[in-house]
Amino acid sequence: MTSEPDSTRPWLSIKRLVLIILTALVGLVVVQSLLSSWKEPQVASRLQLYQTDLLLEGSAWQGEGLPTDQWPRLREGLVGKDPVATAQKQYEEVRQQAAEGLAEGRSLKAETAATANSSLADEANAGKPLARRVQTALTQQELLIERLDIRLGLMEAYQSQPQAAIRRWQQVRDSETATASALRTADTLIRLWQDQQVAPGDDVWLQESLDGWFEYRALEKVYEIQAQTGDRAGDSSSGDRLAQLQAQEQATAENKLVKLVLLSTVPALGAVIGLGLLIWLGAQRVLRGSQSVLQQNAGRGWEVPWTAETIWQVLIAGFFFVGQILLPLVLGGLGLGGAGLSSRGKAIFSLVYYLLMAAGA
Question: What is the mean pLDDT of the chain?
Answer without folding.
Answer: 80
